[in-house]
Amino acid sequence: MQFVHINDIVIHYDIRRAGDGKPVIVFINSLGTDSRIWHSELPKLAEDYTILTYDKRGHGLSGLGNPPYSIDDHVADLAGLLDHLDLSRVIVCGLSVGGLIAQRLHASRPDLVKALILSNTAHKIGTAETWAARIAAVEQNGIGSILDAIMERWFTAPFRKPENAAYQGYCNMLVRQPALGYSGTCAAIRDADFTEAAKKIAVPVLCIAGEEDGSTPPDLVRSLAGLIPGARYEVIAGAAHIPCVEAPAAHAALIRGFIEQLDEE
After folding, report:
1. Domains in the chain: how many in total?
2. Range of the domain at 185
């Protein structure tokens, strides 16, 4: 495990280098998860790409800082980590709130971003009212009180069968995240609206939706793709909000195909 002081917190990260000259992919995890959501997918990419994963603030083994957060807080952490590792012109793959962080990183530090993979995300996610209700529920009763509702959005019904040990593991992942980190990031999502900024994205973009995603449905992801000049839009069948868990081969194949196309251009 690797740790570094960035801004006001310690960031937990992992970098797997594939060799000089290999493209670098940075993965940003979703709300209520940590960098382990990518573990099934990474072996399908690690031989050909340098891979950087990390836990955003308030999640996993990274520090809590001072919640509530803004998206800019998360962006400053990622930019600081990339500067620390002397990485630039990376391909940023952000899932859900990770996609918001990726969009804002491009806007604030375009020198760091070669291309964007915006998975199961949007230019604006939810409403102020829905996020206020979720924050209140977590503050009053803990993350466990919203577990079932969240899992219905994250995963398809076949994945959510009680006998699926992986499903039970991801339930554990959610409820074991720091409640203040979770609610603090809910506030960041609540306040983020990148509708106008999306129209100004000037790098190649792949937008990925899960066919059964209950958090950022395909139509919402399609609307994001429609805002971004030249963006490519793909849907993964039989997956919900976290396709890197439910359909890692399909998700990795879309990422690989997108990067190979970049190399040809």
Report:
1. 1
2. 2-264
